[in-house]
Amino acid sequence: MSIINKGEVVVSLDGTERTLKPSLQAYNTLGSRFESQGELLGKIAAGNLPAVISVLRYGLGLSDAETKKLPELAMKTGLYSLREPLSEFVFKLFNAASRSTR
């Protein structure tokens, strides 16, 4: 059993558990690619593959080479089964950042 740190979310990709970890890079990159947290959450809920891949890439801290495998892994896993953990991660990522700037 693994201990999850604040803001981390476990996601299963094609049967393998991975941990999404909040980072400044994830916050800055996702924040600049999407107009708002709401837009990103809406795209995740709709099963938008580029949005799903972006959250996975920056939440997992993957390199360009590692990212190339994500579309296939996401499709094997099922985009809709990724909605809950990815949405939870985005919510934690953006809300933790907004609390720390007050």
Structure explained in plain terms:
- This protein has one domain (9-95).
- The protein has helices at residues 24-33, 37-45, 49-60, 64-67, 70-77, 83-100; strands spanning 9-13, 16-20.
- It contains 6 helices and 2 strands; from the N terminus they run ββαααααα.
- The mean pLDDT is 91.
- It has a two-stranded antiparallel sheet with strand order 1-2.
- The longest helix is centred in the C-terminal third of the chain and has 18 residues, at 83-100.
- The protein has 102 residues and is mainly α.
- It starts with 8 loop residues before the first strand and ends with a helix.
SSE topology sketch:
Elements: E1 9-13, E2 16-20, H1 24-33, H2 37-45, H3 49-60, H4 64-67, H5 70-77, H6 83-100
Antiparallel strand pairs: 1-2
Q: Pairing-aware structural class of the strands and helices?
A: mainly alpha
Overall average residue pLDDT: 91
Q: How would you sum up the global shape?
A: globular
| Spatial arrangement of strands, main beta sheet | 1-2
SSE order = EEHHHHHH
Report the β-strand fraction as a percent range: 5-15%
Largest sheet report = 2 strands, antiparallel
Quick tags:
mainly alpha, single chain, about 10% strand, about 100 residues
